Amino acid sequence: MELTDLVGHRFVTDSREVKPGDVFVAIKGNRVDGHDFVKQALQAGAFAVVVERDLGLPNQLIVPSTVGFLGMYASKILEKFNPKIVGITGSNGKTTTKEIVAEVLSAEIRTFKNEGNLNSEIGLPLSIINSYRGEQIVVLEMAQRNVGDIEYLCKLFPPNIGVLLNVGSAHVGVTGSVNEIFKGKWQIVENSKQALVNFDDERMRCGNCKYFGTKGGDYVLKERTFDGRSTLLTFETIEGEFYYSLPGFWTKAMATSVLVAFAVADMLDILFNPIRLLSFKPLKGRFNIHTCGKAYIIDDTYNASYESFKHGIEEVKEHFPRPAYAVVGAMKELGEYSKHYHEMLSNLLEEVDGVVVYDKEEESKDITPSNLIFRSDKQEEIVEFLKKKILTSEFSGTLYFKASRAVELDKIVNELLENSNK
């Protein structure tokens, strides 16, 4: 079987997702080897399988590395159309920024973005192979778990503009240290024709850089005000001030994503058209604001790092009614730094009126603020406490939920919202 035989077919790496006509790519992971599921994929109707060893099948394509094959194939697809590529990375806010940048650019020019958070050496190529249709602009979110991941993705899909949003402690347990995280993220700057980086981080300085930020730079978020219905943003550049009013509440992080979109459009010489942002909604679990009776419930449960906790609590303190309670759980993938960052989180949580800890993951044992009012490792006990002790009919304050995804704190949010709607 030849590579040309596979053109036009959907590629999948999970045998459970195979549909008739798909190409199954067998990937050997740390715990599971996709080669063990080739038979299952064929029974589900796979048109062909891409493998690393000869399985004696008429419809097999043997390659040295199936992961490398995916990257190479996706790279060749983009090479054929030669689009302008915008690569986006950072410790926090990558997906939201990618979505906002793509929304802005697509109002003026055909724009492709990788789906959801398919942002790894496997997910990103899959997204391009299955969904790219020759768009002139490609916006790619690039993830890092290990130093070298960003460089690998940039070599496959060389950015015309590489965006580095921020560098924090997320995945420090995997990467080894914050310095190593920075080194890895900085590879997007080193491997892009132009770079757009965060002026507010003094580590981010380079010759081919443009800067966005709140303290200075080429593109500055000068002001953000919320009038109860809309958020007014003021951007400042060398050409003067620009004003935009967007419906609803936009966090500082989301406003910064709009600023990045403004900057990227300018660098690509494309009109900044925010029309599609008028109906933009925050992605699920990213500071979603709900009302429950007189109270506010803020669902920020998609993921968590110390830095994202800090930003979230600042938003709650500045814009939402007191008393404000934080319902929190563990931050994952911190390794030997786990105790340190959970102790820092404990200090940060002193700024709210009370803390409830969901002890689903063992790391949360190190969350011990003095304003702790309840903790449990049982979901039903957390829900019962919140309903009986805080979310009474008289409560008109704020409940802020945040933890790493593994904690599944979103299930508690959903249960509370479902009960309130009955």
CATH class of the largest domain: Alpha Beta
Number of helices: 13
Whole-number mean pLDDT: 94
Instruction: Tell me which oligomeric state these chains represent.
Output: single chain
Number of strands: 19
Shape type: globular
CATH hierarchy: architecture of the largest domain: 3-Layer(aba) Sandwich
- What is the structural class? alpha/beta
Overall number of structural domains:
3
Give unreliable regions as ranges: none
Radius of gyration (CA) equals: 23 Å
- The CATH homologous superfamily of the largest domain is named Mur-like, catalytic domain
Q: What is the helical fraction, as a range of percent?
A: 25-40%
Strand order of the largest sheet: 6-7-5-8-9-10-11-12-13
Terminus-to-terminus distance:
57 Å
Question: Can you tell me about this structure?
Answer:
It is a single chain. With 422 residues, the chain is α/β, with parallel strands linked by helices. It folds into three domains: 3-64, Udp-n-acetylmuramoylalanyl-d-glutamate--2,6- Diaminopimelate Ligase, Chain: A, domain 1 (3-Layer(aba) Sandwich), CATH 3.40.1390.10; 69-210 and 248-279, 3-Layer(aba) Sandwich (UDP-N-acetylmuramoyl-L-alanine:D-glutamate ligase), CATH 3.40.1190.10; 288-420, Protein-Tyrosine Phosphatase, Chain A, CATH 3.90.190. The chain contains 13 helices and 19 strands. The strands form three sheets. It has a nine-stranded mixed beta sheet. Strands 14-15-19-16-17-18 form a six-stranded mixed beta sheet, sandwiched between helices. Strands 1-2-3-4 form a four-stranded parallel beta sheet. It is globular, with a radius of gyration of 23 Å. The termini are far apart. One of its GO terms (biological process) is cell wall organization.
